[in-house]
C-alpha cells in the first residue's frame, strides 16, 4: 500500500526535499536553543555576579534562532499542504477517470453510495493522515536524530541511558498500531455501507413511503449505525492507548536523565547549565515518539481508506478499443447476429445461441416476460457488455451512398468488436424508460448529442417531441436550469426532453425501450406519430411491454429465457396462437 502512495508522491519530490530540508533547519534551531539557555544559566553564577554582556549576546542569538525556526516551519507547512492536496487531487482525478472506463458490469454490481464514499470520504480521511505524516513525521525523525547527536556531544553515559529505555516506546506503539489497522478497515467499510443506504433512501424516498417501509429502513440504518459506532469506538480506544503509553515511557526517560544527570553534576562531570540542557533534550527527544505514535495511528486509518480507493483505481477497466479499431462513419442499418451467447455470471445462463438478421430500415420489436433478455440484447448491441461468444455485425453504407438509408449494393459488414465504441454508439439513438438528464439548462440537455445544433434545429426537435409547449412555459424557456437528473421536472417532461435529444441527432439506428411509458395517452399518440416519421428508413429496435404499441412493427421477436421462440408480424404471430398470442390476449382480455 505504501508503495502505491509513493507513486503519487514521486511527482512532488522537489517539494518533499524542500520540506525535509526545512524540517532539518527547524529542528536544528530548536535543538540549538537549549544550548543557549544552558549557557545563559552558567553566566548567572550567583547574586550580584551576573555576566550581563554575555547574556545580551545570547539573547540576540536566541531571537535569530526563533525567527529562523518560525519562518522555516511556516514555509515547510506551505510545502506540505501543497504536496498533500495535490496528491489527493491526483488520486481523485484517477479515480474519476477510472469510473468512466470501468465496464458497466462493475457499476451494476457495486453499491453506488459505496463508490461515492470511496472517492469523497475515504480520500478526505487519507488526506488528513497524509498531511499529519508530512507535517510531523519528518520533523519528528529529525528531532530524534538531532537530539541524540547534541546529547552525545555533551555526555555519552547519560545519552546511553536515554537510548536504552526509548525502544520500549516503539514496541508499545507498534503493537497498538497493528490492532488499530484492522479496526479502521472495518470502520471505513461500514461508512461505505451507511453512505450507500442513505443514498438509496434519498433516491427512492417515494417508493419507501408508498410501501410504508420507513420502519424497516430505520431498523437497517440503526443496525449499520450501531456497527459503525462499535467499530469506531474500538478503533478510537486502541488508538487512544498510544499517547498515555508512550508518555509513561517518556516519563521514565526524563526521570532517568534527571537522576543520572544530577549525580554527574554533583561529581563535577557536567555543569548545572548542561544538566538543564540535558533535561530539555530529554523532553524534546521523547516528544517526537508521542507525535510519531499518533501519526502512525492516523496513518493506519489513512492506509485503510487508501486501500479502498486504490481497489477502485486498480479495478479492471473496460477492454479498450484496439489500436486499429474501425471508425464507423454511417451505418446502413443492417444487423447480423450469429450464435451469440452471453451471461452476466458463469453460473446462470441467459442468452444462448441467439441468431437474427435485420435488414436496413426494418422496425424490430422485442417482447417477452421480465428477465428474458430484452434489455440485455440492447446492451450487447451498444457494447455496454461484450458477448461471451458469437458475433454481432453492422453494415456500413458504401462510399458515395452515405446519404442514403437504403443501398442496393452490398454493405460492408463489420464485427462490432472491431469498431470503436464511440463511433458505434454515435450511430444509435436511445430513448429508455429510465430518463437521464444532467445538471444544466434545457438547451444543454437537448443539444447534448449535437452541441453545434442551431436554435431552429433545437426548437424543431423539441416541437417534434411535443416538448416545446411546456418548455416555453418555464421561467427562462430553453435556458431554464434543471437539477441533477431533472429533479424539478415531472417524469413525463423528462422523457419528452430525452425524445427531443434523439429527434435532434436522428442517427441511422434507433433503440426505443418503453420510450413513452411516462407520457399521458394523448401526448403518446402524437409522439407515436412522430416516432413513425423518425423511424422511416431507419433500423429501429423497440422494446415494449405494452403490445398495443408494436402492431406496426415489420418483425416482432418473442423472447423467452434468452432465446427467440417466435418471430413474425403481429397478425402472423396472432394466427400462430402461440406464446405471443397468450401475452397479447392477457393484456386485452375482457373480464
Please tell me about this protein's structure.
With 591 residues, the protein is an alpha/beta fold. It folds into two domains: 2-313, ABC transporter type 1, transmembrane domain (ABC transporter transmembrane region fold, Up-down Bundle), CATH 1.20.1560; 324-427 and 554-591, Rossmann fold (3-Layer(aba) Sandwich), CATH 3.40.50. It has 20 helices and 14 strands. The strands form four sheets. A six-stranded mixed sheet has the order 8-11-12-5-13-14. It has a four-stranded antiparallel sheet with strand order 4-3-6-7. Helix 2 runs antiparallel to helix 3 and helix 5 runs antiparallel to helix 11. The longest helix is centred in the first third of the chain and has 50 residues, at 52-101. It is elongated. Mean pLDDT is 80; it is low at 401-409.
Provide the structure class: alpha/beta
Q: What is the CATH architecture annotation of the largest domain?
A: Up-down Bundle
As for the CATH topology of the largest domain, it is ABC transporter transmembrane region fold
Strand fraction: 5-15%
CATH class of the largest domain: Mainly Alpha
The portion of residues assigned to helices is 55-70%
Number of helices: 20
What is the total domain count? 2
Largest sheet: 6 strands, mixed
Low-confidence runs: 401-409
Q: Any idea what the shape is?
A: elongated
How many strand elements? 14
